[in-house]
Design a protein that fits this description.
The complex is a heterodimer of chains A (204) and B (275). With 204 residues, chain A is mainly α. Chain A is built from ten helices and no strands.
Chain lengths: 204, 275
Amino acid sequence: MRLPWKRTAREAGPQTSEFERLALPLLPSLYNIAFWLSRNATDAEDLVQETFLKALRGFASFEPGSNFKGWIFRILRNTYLTSRTGLAATRTVALEDELNESGESGPAQLPEAAIDWQTPETNLLQMADRGALQAAMATLPPPLLEVILLCDVEEMKYREISATLEIPIGTVMSRIARARAALRTALEAQQGSSRGLAHDRSSL
Amino acid sequence: MTDHLSNAILNALADGELSLDQLASANEHLAACTSCTSKALYQTLLKSATTKAGQRYALPPQLQDRLIRLASQANTEPQAPRFRAAPISPSRSVWSSLGWATAAVLLLVTVSMIFVQRAAHKAEIASSEEAALVTEVFDQHVATLAGNMPLQVVSTDRHTVKPWFQGKIPFSFNLPQGLPSDMTLDGANLTYLRNQPVAQLLYSIGKHRVSVFLRRRSGHAEVDESLTERSGFHVMAFNTNDLDAVAVSDVDPARLAELVSSIKHAQTGDQKQSK
């Protein structure tokens, strides 16, 4: 896959100060994503630093005016995939990424009858609990977590996510659907256990 | 009523990814379908909540400082070598280059450390050898003065002193002529420094005695002609093409340097031919 920021021949690279101007504002986002993916502070710091240095050294390959954020996030993601935690994650995760003909993400799609749609008010209360949602996000496998982070936290468009992760847009959509379905399931499970605890307490 | 909206459409709706046509069609359906409206609301709320919950980890200030420092260092260093022009993946290129760069840096650091350690070791050895030599020279000079022993060759005539060493030392040397009136040759001794035969020349500068030790040169390194002090005595080393020399005295350093310069220049040029 050929990305828009790739160059076939090297030209004189921009100055490091230009790199700093573009990269430094993204450090908080890079660290946040790195922490989510690596799940600990030490690995996150290593991941961000390695990404930063790789990007700095490879800045000559960046096409001025193209999507720097997508470029550096892609370096972060590839660095993560070759890291210890990333390799461990890829060994344990297998996904059916392709959308089925009806546009649904097949295996993860719950039967309509099985979905206990809650009222919007209940959902709102549940989702207002940031800790519960963060716990649910932490259970997502990396391919789903990264796509939901890029989409919802970094507010990237599907096209940007597709270029950053080097996957088709259809796969992006599929993973987003899977991720949200998984979050919903996890939140419902949490709510179910809370209800159970409340019921147990009330029956004592 | 049209068919219910798919999950893909509901997610795209929440993410603002629907085309105008798709959006119009979805809105038309939502206006008549409470089930899909509920789902769409859920997805929107979930997205909003995920956006907030996902912003969880704050960048440590020390990491930011470190990275800024690294970038600044890179800014002051010469521009890094260019990557190869082959259209490979940027990440692979960066990864590969970083790997090679890391290996090269490690190799460079290792080799540098070996050289630094060797250089330090050599410097340490040279320093200790120099200190030992200064001690030996100082002791010999003091012993010559304190013992009040007669010199092995007593003469103010350089044409007497120089030939006296023939057959006694495996090298030859020249003695300066035209020294200042208060700077006289008193004689010489055959002695040993570091187990090598050495010519010890005795001079007087006023009432101060000077020992100049000459030996065959070893090695190619130029000696540091700076002055060393030891117990009120001054020690000055120098060398010529063939000789290593050390002078020691309690005379004024400038006068000692004057004598040293005369002896040094006597080893070359017309003076040598005149002997």
